[in-house]
Specification:
With 100 residues, the protein is mainly alpha-helical. It has two domains: 1-43; 46-100, no CATH class. 84% of the residues lie in helices and 0% in strands. Helix 1 (2-12) packs antiparallel against helix 2. The model has no long low-confidence stretch (mean pLDDT 84).
C-alpha cells in the first residue's frame, strides 16, 4: 500500500485528499510493522550475517545475490524516478510558500 500510493503520488503529482491520506496512514502502519520486525530480529542479525559471509548456511550465496540485486534495483528505481520527485518537491515548495 505504501509503495503503491507513493508511486501514484509521483505519477499524479501531490494532491490533498484521499490518496495523500492513504499514503500517510500506510506509512504509519508500515513503520510500526517494520520496527517490530527489525527489533525482533536485531540480536540475531550479527550471527546470521557472519554465517552467511562464511557460507556455512545453505543458500548463503543465493541470499547474498538477492540482497545485492535488491540494492541495485532500488538504486535504479531511485535514479529513474528522480525527475518525478523533483516535480513533487517544487509543487510542495510552492504550496508551502503560499500557505505560510
Amino acid at each position: 500500500m505504501l509503495f503503491g500510493t507513493g508511486v501514484l503520488l509521483l505519477a499524479l503529482h501531490p494532491q490533498r485528499g484521499l490518496l495523500v491520506g492513504l499514503h500517510k496512514a500506510s506509512f504509519i502502519v508500515w513503520f510500526a510493522a517494520m520496527s517490530a520486525h527489525v527489533l525482533g530480529h536485531a540480536l540475531k542479525l550479527p550471527g546470521l550475517v557472519r554465517a552467511d559471509l562464511e557460507r556455512v548456511r545453505p543458500g548463503s550465496r543465493a541470499r547474498q545475490l538477492l540482497v545485492a540485486g535488491a540494492v541495485v534495483a532500488g538504486m535504479i528505481a531511485a535514479v529513474v524516478t528522480l525527475p518525478l520527485a523533483h516535480d513533487w518537491v517544487n509543487w510542495a515548495a510552492q504550496h508551502h510558500h503560499h500557505d505560510g
